[in-house]
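Record type: monomer structure entry
Structure origin: computed from sequence
Chain ID: A
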Amino acid sequence: MKIATFNVNSVKARLPRVLEWLKEAQPDVALLQEIKTVDEAFPSLEIEDLGYNIATHGQKTYNGVAILSKSPLEDVTRGLPGDDSDEQARYMEATIGDLRVASIYLPNGNPVDSEKYPYKLAWMDRLTAHVRDTLLPVEQPFVLGGDFNVIPADLDVYDPRAWSDDALFRPETLAKFRALTHLGLTEAWRALHAEAAYSFWDYQAGRWPRDEGVRIDHFLLCPRAADRLAACEIDKGPRGKEKASDHTPVWCEIEEAD
């Protein structure tokens, strides 16, 4: 099963690029973030024509996640547990085959001196609690994919010093990310690659032509899914297209269970 994650930065604004990518890359499952539309306005017909089943958790203008799958989507749940007052559409899960798959748009957290950073840290605590208390005990293999808005290490940013006080790279953020991975999760791309590579390049200051990016789009796999990890790559092609998202897709391949 080829699972891809792609922060599309508005599915309606990028629809030609998204459809083009789906046709070329042919992921079995596509996890989208920042769809920036309500469920009713999601371009379902165009995507269904490519053979995908669709589940969305949308929000007007901001945020929003979706799961596209060539196989049936079962037991779809929307929203991250732990805070009934949280109305931001950033998390959804579905079962596809024998895998539980989540599409994640973790809060950015900037500026750090606003309420946005405590929200980010609290959201990460909720995610860790959900993995620990709900996903792991069931023993169903699971894959968490999406825009985590976390730069895991110096190797994952073109200029670590310049990003040292950014919400994506602050020590508090990295500590929360380690708490999550230390539950026994494998970060798929880094498990298979030792080199520097990026998945996001800001539109400003010519970051893309100079390859000055950050790696913030990740897959986290539970042990039973990690045992079946066959590949994980960053597809830089879509970022170089006209009217591209500032992110590019990342994909992993999970072998069938024995």
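Annotation 1: The helical segments are 15-25, 44-48, 116-138, 171-181, 188-192, 223-226.
Annotation 2: The chain has a mean pLDDT of 97.
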